[in-house]
Amino acid sequence: MEDVTDVAFRTLIARYGKPDVAFTEFTSADGLVRADEKGRRQLRKKLLYSDIERPIVAQLFSAKPEYMREASKMVAEMGFDGIDINMGCPVNEVVRQQCGAALIQNPALAREVIRAAKEGFYGSPTSPECPVSIKTRLGYNEDTLETWLPELLSENPSAITIHARTRKEMSDVAAHWERVHGRLKFETMCNTRCCTRRLLSAMEMSKISPMQE
Ligand SMILES: Cc1cc2nc3c(=O)[nH]c(=O)nc-3n(C[C@H](O)[C@H](O)[C@H](O)COP(=O)(O)O)c2cc1C
Predict the structure, then answer these.
(1) Is 89 a catalytic residue?
(2) Which structural domain, as residue segments, surrounds residue 161?
(3) Does any ligand 1 atom lie closer than 6 A to the CB of residue 136?
């Protein structure tokens, strides 16, 4: 969470109640690639982590495949265990750049961004081994999960986290938990085929079963 779950916060949590997986605050891939040295140093603070947090996943956002590819390469070199792509942030500043929840309205571009992240992080846009996951919402103005989710699943992400509201709903209504239940729960939470060994063992420890082929 932006401005909340920084490295100090996460390290404290890891020490006293270790989560199976930790995610950084969301970070602009475009900024990491394009900012001047000072700006880049500032952004990289969001990507500080401690080893106790592992597996640690960097959350990035971008609507530009070339910047996502480049930033994912940087993140791999920084030693992260995976990348989570934010496709759920509803704030105007992010959506105006076609990033975050705006990508729900452009599935073709969203899929390109996922492939670019895999290519940057792992060297292959289609590798099922590459630990790239997605955080998203039920839809943009309307709940379009029935069509949006299959688009994401086509790219074989390691996991999909769903904020059970639309972008339009921001955080103003109760979450539609029934939408993340049953079939969707199976398809998303259990789609662990392409997790790294570390993520897999974390899931084994928490008794989440990998998807049955
Ligand atoms: C201040 C704030 C910062 C957030 N930052 C992020 C973020 O960086 N990445 C992300 O995926 N979600 C972020 N979120 C969304 C939350 O992770 C979560 O999905 C959302 O608040 C829904 O949970 P709730 O119904 O308990 O509020 C943020 C939410 C808040 C309130």
Answers:
(1) yes
(2) 7-184
(3) no
